Structures are given as C-alpha cells and as structure tokens.
Amino acid sequence: MSRVGKDAVKLDSKLSSYDANETGVSVTVSHVMGEKAGTTTTHTGDVLIAADGIHSMVKKTCPKPQVLLPSVSSDFCCQVRKSFYGDEKPSFTGWIIWRGAMPIERWPADIPLEDVVTYGHSDAYMAWYPFRKDESGKETLVNWGACIKQGEQGDVAESWAQAGNKEEIGAHFGSWPEPCNHIVQNTDKIMKLSIHDRDPVKQWAFGRVLLIGDAAHPMLPFAGQGASSAMEDGMLLAQRLSETPSDVVSALKKVEEERIEHVTKVTVHCRNRGGILEEFVVVDKLKENSDEELKTLLDSKGVEHSDCTDTTSLLLKVLNCKDAWPESFLRKLY
Ligand SMILES: Cc1cc2nc3c(=O)[nH]c(=O)nc-3n(C[C@H](O)[C@H](O)[C@H](O)COP(=O)(O)OP(=O)(O)OC[C@H]3O[C@@H](n4cnc5c(N)ncnc54)[C@H](O)[C@@H]3O)c2cc1C
C-alpha cells in the first residue's frame, strides 16, 4: 500500500461488467456506497485479475476449455458447444459451520489455551486457536469453528455474511465438555455457512484475464489452505508480471501453468478432508478393537507399549503410528 498509494484500492466498487481484448481491458464498476453510490465508473488497464472469490462473477463468464462434439445434423461436421464456468454446479457437502472469535480475556483460567485444538468425532467437531496479535505480539482473540455434518442444507447459505445463533449451536454442542460451550456463550457475533464442493477447473488464464484465489481454485476449508494458496498465486503473479511487463498475456499464462497442477492436488487433498477428520475416522475405527488387538497391531510394527496403562493411551499410540494402522482400513479411508 505504501508503494501504490491508498487511492489504488477502491472499496466502494462492485465489478458489474468487463471487456478484454488484444489491446487491453476495461471494467465497469457500480458504486455501492459513499458519494458516488448508485453511479458507475469505467476503468481501463492492461490486465484483469479476478480475485472475486467462490461466487466469482468473472469466472462465470469464462469459457470452459471447449469440447468438440459430433454434429447432430451431419456425420462429417463438428460443432463447438460453448460452455462457461458459470454453469458449474456446486454440490453441498453436508457440512454446516458456525464460526466466531471470542476475546481472549474471556478464556477460562482453568483450561490451558493451546495452539490449535480440534475436538469431536467424524460427524461433528469444534476447533479453536488463538490469533490476531496486538502490537506487543500477544494474541487478542480465540478463533473457533463448530462443524456438523447433516443431510440438509436448510436455510444455511454458502456465504460469509449469514448470522448464526447460540441456540442452534447449543442443540448440537451444548452437552459437550468445556470449553466448547463456554467459547460459544462468550462470543458476541456468530456466523454460519454451508460448505459446497466444486470440481477443480482446467483453465485460469484467458488472455488478459486471470482468475486467482478462490475464483480459480475454491477448496474445502478442512485443511486451511485456501487463503494461503490465494497469497501464493498473488506472489507468483507479481513476479511473472515484473519479469515480462511488455507481455502480460504470457505472464498470466505462466501463473496458470506453474500453479494449476500443485493447487489441484491441494484441492483434492482438502476434498479428502485434509487429514483432520481422517484422524477421527481412524479413532472411531480403532475403538472397535480390543486392547489386545491394539497391542497386536503395535507388536506387528515392533512398537513398545508397556507404558500404555489404559485403552486411551493404547489408542493414542496406534494413532500416532500410521504404520500400525491395518492396511484394510487405510484403503477404506482414502
Ligand atoms: C470456514 C472456513 C475456514 C477457512 N479457514 C482457512 C484457513 O484456516 N486457512 C486458509 O488458508 N484458508 C481458509 N479458508 C479459505 C479462505 O477463507 C479462502 O480461501 C480465501 O478467503 C480466498 O481468498 P480470495 O481473496 O480468493 O477470496 P475472498 O476472501 O472470498 O475475497 C473475494 C473478495 O471479492 C469481493 N467481490 C466478490 N465479487 C465482487 C465484485 N463483483 N466486485 C468487486 N468485489 C467483489 C468480495 O466482496 C470479497 O471481498 C477457510 C474458509 C472457510 C469457509
């Protein structure tokens, strides 16, 4: 910001249309607040970087890589069916998440506040961690999410802006051990959203237009990789544009080429629940084993377990030793 100046960022502008051709791009924005509210302005530039999130307006207008289909009228001709990313159908994952941030001074004194805690089972869990450091480097808030898997989406939108309430959460988590309920009760503002899945797409760069972040590669939040991937896109984009400022089209294409394979792998990893819930599933499955069976699993890998005095410590030991997990259920998990 210190380099481009604060006027470079227009917070009151919503992109309503754009045009991109061989010589440049123009965007028309509607002003949604402030003195110019209700009017529109057109800006021109070299590139359009669409970082407009999961409901990206720009992505909807981008053509999917075209498919050649045999024509219905003639065996000898082909017709190009043009389709756009706008017709993608997000599928509801079954997950609803409530989230909030509690001031850290409300944290209960008798419970240690650890870095990240995830508590629950494969169909419902709560996770929390301290964040937002002040100038002295001390965290000021506890960020939390309470997630349930339920069949119906109900009235819960795929949106950052929908308010939730403590009663709804209480119905699912009210009887859970503390600090679960304490965190919810001591949070002033609670939001809720439904989680949808989208297939990774094959193209992010369209001439002078580039999709980045969630617009290019929306991913499920279970591995906490979406924002970091968006930042990586931005870093690489800045680098490639600075290397070839007179050939911006190639610079945008390079970003797509260098990132798409890796980010698609991350997206698929997140779809497989990013490892977080996998552990719950493993625990649930391991619980079906008797203590003797757990010991046999550890013995088969030569893992010492004489320090395990109860079922919980045996379960933890097997959980932490992936080698000892039976191969049969590894296949079921992935
Ligand atoms: C519950 C949950 C937890 C998550 N936890 C993590 C985590 O721990 N770590 C992590 O890395 N990621 C996490 N993510 C993912 C992360 O939030 C997203 O990947 C990230 O916000 C994507 O950034 P973005 O800039 O691409 O899009 P967004 O953050 O969605 O920003 C898009 C912006 O574009 C604006 N916009 C949209 N349309 C227009 C328009 N027409 N004109 C102008 N502006 C427009 C929007 O108002 C918005 O400000 C989580 C996601 C969820 C749902």
What is the name of the CATH class of the largest domain?
Alpha Beta
Mean pLDDT equals 88
Helix content: 25-40%
**Ions and ligands:** flavin-adenine dinucleotide
Describe the largest sheet: 5 strands, antiparallel
User: What letter string, H or E per element, gives the SSE order?
Assistant: EEEEHEEEEEEHHEEEHHHHHH
Specify the overall morphology. globular
State the fourth-level CATH superfamily of the largest domain: FAD/NAD(P)-binding domain
What is the CATH architecture descriptor of the largest domain? 3-Layer(bba) Sandwich
User: Low-confidence parts lasting 5 or more residues at pLDDT below 50?
Assistant: 69-79, 330-334
CATH topology category name of the largest domain? FAD/NAD(P)-binding domain
Radius of gyration: 25 Å
Distance between the termini: 44 Å
What strand line-up does the widest sheet have?
Answer: 8-9-10-7-11
Based on helices, strands and strand pairing, what is the structural class?
alpha+beta
Query: Could you tell me the strand content as a percent range?
Result: 25-35%
* Count of separate DSSP helical elements: 9
Question: What key attributes describe this structure?
Answer:
334 residues; alpha+beta; FAD/NAD(P)-binding domain; D-Amino Acid Oxidase, Chain A, domain 2; 5-stranded antiparallel β-sheet; 3-stranded antiparallel β-sheet; globular; disordered C terminus; binds flavin-adenine dinucleotide
